[in-house]
Design a protein that fits this description.
Strand content: under 5%
InterPro entries: DoxX, DoxX-like_oxidoreductase
Subcellular location: Cell membrane
Helix content: over 70%
Protein name: DoxX family protein
Number of strands: 0
Main location: membrane
Organism: Paracoccus alkanivorans
Length: about 140
Amino acid sequence: MLTALNEKLNAPGLAALILRVTLGVLFLAHAGLKIFVFTPAGTAQFFGSIGLPGALAYLVIAAEVIGGIALIVGWQVRLAALALVPVMLGTIIFSHGANGFFFSNEGGGWEYPAFWTIALIVQALIGGGSAALGRN
């Protein structure tokens, strides 16, 4: 019985598709938050308040939009995933690292961004999976 279930669940292409679309949607959602709620100028001010150049905020927003779309459609998936890793590492180091591990801590700890980082690395290792525009 378990063997039959394992065989039915053996769908690495589908797994990669689910992971990349989920990651892509999450990045687009967070880019949307920076664009429509915080505003790009407000995001740049926040970056400045934590010691980063304000202009970097615009690069992060662009990376989240372009990377999110690339992941969703399956274009240059390995590259898109790897390009977003520094964004998440920056989030851990500059925004959430001092708040402890658990994301439920005040200000949000680094648990959630670390999970995203690992998921991006896994995506880069396994590629785009099913229904990707490219074979990567």
